[in-house]
Amino acid sequence: MQPTQNVLIPEVIQQIPLTYYIIISTALFVIGIIGVLTRRNAIIIFMSIELMLNAVNLLLIAFSSYRSDSSGQVFVFFIMAVAAAEVSVGLAIIVMIYRNTRSIDVGLLNKLKW
Amino acid sequence: MSEFLNQFKQLTATGYLFWVLAILALLSAVWVVTARNPIHSVLALIATFFCLSGHYILLNAQFLAAVNIIVYAGAIMVLFLFTIMFLNLRREDEESKTNLTKMAAVVVGGLLMVMLITIFRAKSAQVPTFNPVSFDSRTGLVENLGSILYSDYILPFELASVLFLVAMVGAVMLGKREAGDRHF
Asked: Is B67 in CB contact (< 8 Å) with chain A?
């Protein structure tokens, strides 16, 4: 490893193993899953889904930076675009549910289970 | 454990910044899930996004750090906040799930996390590290990403615009008042 080349590599990549990013992303993803399972407020369930998407984004960017492969970052860009479209439609659905039931408690929609 | 502590002592300021950002991101993610007031959840989620943008800058992905703040913290969270205020959800009428359900959910999540981490830390998993010879620090810069986005990924890029059009039409259709709707 020549010192001149070493300067160009970001310090985080030199000091932090990729495994730590995997563990952080896993923790974020699991927090999102717990949020979906424990809350009944539809908007908070939606925000937990955003947390899970962001955990995946972090992992993709970490791998892409460590391996110097731009495709991962382009993929994250598309995930963000799809998340924006998903949020606009999902919030419209939540507003419509509220208009019909005066509540956004997902427990009231239990007929969707069967 | 002592190996980990030795590694921790050798970190520079950037290494400590990584840990601070990681812990802040996880704490605010927990706050998103546990907050009683939905507006606090939104604020915590914005904090999480800023911490993740900090991670992206540390990883030299400046373009995505900017896009993350503009799209997520700027556009998507404003949409969430707007919906919460529009629906006037400040009163806490959410009867929460039973403690048994909550405990079961946390146990399921914890087991999943233990399982995933065991898989990733397995000897045969072979998590790759950086290659000092072929490393390119310009991977995440706008110039590089833009040329790839407009050459290799031009078709998905164009299809994304169709997706946005469909999402816009869908949101307008869903938000429109129908004849049989209850008015309030």
From this structure: yes
CB contact under 8 A, A68 and B130: yes
- Per-residue pLDDT reduced to its tens digit, A50-107: 999 999 999 999 999 988 888 999 999 999 999 999 999 999 999 888 888 888 888 8
Query: What predicted TM-score, i.e. pTM, was given to this entire model?
Result: 0.89
Across B32-58, average pLDDT: 93
Contacts of A41 in chain B (CB under 8 A): 38, 89, 94
Whether the CB of B136 is below 8 Å from some CB of chain A: the reply is yes
Nearest CA in chain A to B132: A1
**Every domain of chain A and the residues it spans:** 16-103
Amino acid at B103: M
Asked if A102's CB is within 8 angstroms of B184's CB, the reply is yes
| Fold entry, domain B1-90 | Four Helix Bundle (Hemerythrin (Met), subunit A) (1.20.120)
ipTM of the complex: 0.89
Cα→Cα distances B80→B36, B84, B119, Å: 16, 6, 35
Distances (CA, A) of B16 to A27, A87, A101, B23, B85: 19, 34, 49, 11, 38
In B, which residues are within 8 Å of A101 by CB distance? none
Q: Where does chain A show beta strands of DSSP type E? A: none
Element (H, E) at B73: none
B68-111 tens-digit pLDDT: 999 998 899 999 999 988 887 655 555 667 888 889 999 999 99
Q: Do A65 and B12 touch (CB under 8 A)?
A: no
Q: CATH for A16-103, among 3.40.50.150, 1.10.287.3510, 3.40.50.970, 1.10.3370.10?
A: 1.10.287.3510
